[in-house]
Amino acid sequence: MLVVDKVSKQFKDKKQIVKAVDYLSLTIPEGHVVGLIGENGAGKTTLLRMLCTLIAPDEGKITLDGNDIYTHKEQVRKRMGVLFGSETGLYSRLTARENLEYFGSLYGMTSHEIKNQIEMLAKRFGMRKYLDRKVEGFSKGMMQKVAIARTLIHNPDIVLFDEPTTGLDITSSNIFREFILQFKKEGKTIIFSTHIMDEIAQLCDDVIMMHKGQMVYEGGLEELYEQENSRDLNYLFTSKIVRGDLYV
């Protein structure tokens, strides 16, 4: 279980101080698929970066199974797979296979484990035709597929995605969604941000709504629908912002 307790993070933008995350508290149960909704600048990416220990909060605490994640960074990172938007993390002069082999080795996987995992991911994402081509020159969609495969190479317990279907065609997006549902069956914890409300509605157990670094809603989708007497997530999010439904 991931617990975020009264966490804040601010950045200096020119001469201004911007509070990206403002006194945020939430709980992400093990094995849940959680959707993260908010406008650009709402603090979604900052929250995800703190969850995976890339940046530390200015205030507050984040724990995983009761342990402070910043005290146990290496153990936490081995349990997580992370993909941030267009930051693929891939080396353009290596082939797709070589990239996956490299990242697999960083996680201490054996050659046999890496080979089997690459074969499975290549098959599922339809990457076999270009698995042994250099990444430079790949289309955005091809690059995104390899980046997602890189995120999953070590079979993590917890996966964080920042707008993961950006650049993917319809078939690849559907394959990604199938992966999410499969992970859910396996008891993995998935947290992903998206502007595509249908993805939230189809895939998620819970939703986190953010606005200007603060919480608008945290909880189960069905509870939200029942509470607001609507299943239109676009309407519900906008309505909560207009009403000023912030958790403070």
Automatic annotation (TrEMBL):
Gene3D superfamilies: P-loop containing nucleotide triphosphate hydrolases. InterPro entries: AAA+_ATPase, ABC_transporter-like_ATP-bd, ABC_transporter-like_CS, ABC_transporter_ATP-binding, P-loop_NTPase. GO terms for molecular function: ATP binding. Residues 2-237 form the ABC transporter domain. The keyword Transport applies. Keywords: ATP-binding, Nucleotide-binding, Transport. Belongs to the ABC transporter superfamily. PANTHER family: ABC TRANSPORTER ATP-BINDING PROTEIN (PTHR42711), ABC TRANSPORTER ATP-BINDING PROTEIN NATA (PTHR42711:SF5). This is ATP-binding cassette domain-containing protein. It comes from Lederbergia graminis.
